[in-house]
Amino acid sequence: MSFYSYDPNSLEKHGKSFYWASFFLPYKSKDAASELYSICRYFDDLADETPNDQSEKLKSEFEQICNNVEHPINKFLKSNNIPIQILGDLIQGLIQDQKLVRIQTEKDLIEYSYQVAGTVGLMMQPLILVKNKNANKHAVDLGIAMQLTNIARDIYEDAIMNRVYLPKEWLKEISIEHLKSDSNDEIQTQMSAILRKLIELSEIYYQNGFSGMKYIPIKTRLAIFFAAKIYRAIGMKIKGNNYQYSNKRVYLNKLNKLWVTIKSLPEFILLKMIYRTYTPIRESFQNENL
């Protein structure tokens, strides 16, 4: 049985892009963001603790947190004005991963992305001193954008774990065996079109996320902007590779991250001028406006 305890090094060990961006946060926000990451990592690890279905364990752990005001996770959420229902939504996404993962539609893909990443955007809001509820939809969309990037990057690795997050309505006749194959020539044309569609979809969500940066105080805005730009750069690297499907994971090294950071500064200065509008592209989720 696992028990939660805050790991202050969790962000550095497991969240490389976020850890890079966290250097631009004031100490108090960085510390709180690190603890939130540690909580999310705890549930990730709990979900992957054994090859068996961990759904009941995840549900039980969440119930214990809800029912125990002294539980460190409950205390952290309360002290930072984070509704516990949002953590519940994240856990629902992890429970979904315990089953046979076969996403059927684009709508299902967006809902899953909200559960495992949009929720994190929402929980980050009070930690980076955002007070305007109008920011919520932007935070959700930025989280969704990042998760779509994750999915684009990890298609092969996910398939090896018998997980397919690309919608069946996009894949059509492409099977998981095709996705796990070391030779992708047979499906390369179709997969390139799917990767293009996924990256272009993520771009709309990134634009929506960036258009909400105006709600983030200037002293915490830069870190969130850099984190998003670094994640987005992974998608741009996939685009630069002509959306080629490969069993090799696309990633950014430290030099790449430094270049993205430097290159993004002029855009940061002009944020409010560049990103003015929000594109309605999804339905609201039940708990996003708590």
Protein model, in words:
The mean pLDDT is 93. This protein has helices spanning 10-14, 16-22, 27-47, 55-67, 72-79, 84-96, 106-124, 136-153, 155-160, 168-171, 176-180, 188-210, 218-240, 254-269, 271-274; strands spanning 101-102, 163-164. It is globular. It has a two-stranded parallel sheet with strand order 1-2. It has one domain: Farnesyl Diphosphate Synthase. It has 15 helices and 2 strands. The longest helix has 23 residues, at 188-210. With 290 residues, the protein is mainly alpha-helical. The two termini are 32 Å apart.
Summarize the biggest pleated sheet. Answer: 2 strands, parallel
Q: What is the CATH first-level class name?
A: Mainly Alpha
Q: How many structural domains in the coordinates?
A: 1
Instruction: Tell me the total number of β-strands.
Output: 2
Q: Approximately how much helix is present in the residues? A: 55-70%
Biggest sheet, strands in spatial order? 1-2
Examine the secondary-structure arrangement and name the CATH architecture: Orthogonal Bundle
The rounded distance between the terminal residues' Cα atoms is: 32 Å
| Total helical elements | 15
Overall pLDDT confidence: 93
Strand/helix succession: HHHHHHEHHHEHHHHHH
